[in-house]
Specification:
The chain is mainly β. It has one domain: Neuraminidase (6 Propeller), CATH 2.120.10.30. A hairpin with a 4-residue loop joins strand 15 and strand 16. About 2% of the residues have low confidence. This is Gluconolactonase.
Amino acid sequence: MNAMPSLVAGGLSWPEAPRWHNGHLYFSDCHNFRVMRVKPGAGAAEIVTPLEGRPSGMDFFPDGRLLVAGALDRKLWWVSDGRTELAADLSMHASGLLNDMIVDPQGRAWVGDTGFNLAAGGRERPGTLFSWSPEEGVRRAAENVRFPNGLAIAPDGRTLYLAETFASAITAFDLSVEGRLSNRRIHAQLEGRPDGMCLDADGGLWVALLWNQEFHRIGRNGNVTHRLAFEHERTVSCVLGGPGRRTLFIGTSELIDNGTTQTRGEGTIKCLDAPFAGAGIP
């Protein structure tokens, strides 16, 4: 793809987990410890709430409530009207940091535990994918995951995709209505290490390849169909939103995660027209 992206928001640190909701793009500005939102074309991004636990994954429940994962405190937080309320404490379950997260149509959150703290120099350990809902509590959905990252659910709700960063792969699972995963398999072996991702209506997955400084669109057969390259930026996250979900929003940053509070304005959200509309979750 040769299209030139347009700037949506600047002055960020490490923009994670973009989610389109009610005409706004919500996202985690991780190292500035705040949840943000922006209405494209209508001014600067605004702070939804600060979060001391360092926001990472986020998504909206079917009733419209926003749930945010705290990477450092390993807790899930409801966010409403600029206030936070504890939803669940996963600190006794997770051995690493909480990472990306999505919410399925049944109102069940899926959140990855990295297994170790990469930024603090920890050695690689297997991570875990958890599910959580107010009714079911916390469940271990998948184990021995190599740094769980971006997540997506197919439009029919029957397939869950998980980016395993250190495996350089997208793993797929069959997903039941009851929230059980089965038939674990490799959907695509990638050219680099994936971070965030999203689905389109043609069955393609847009994937941020962090160290390659590229976004790849992976077709149904696992092959690369489109590439977006950024010479001087880390490619972090993406989502399809806007009218008809025809806009690809991408998060990039020059920031290297060293585990400290970062306030340098080196991260951005950009957008460009997508070849296919968004589908599924997120």
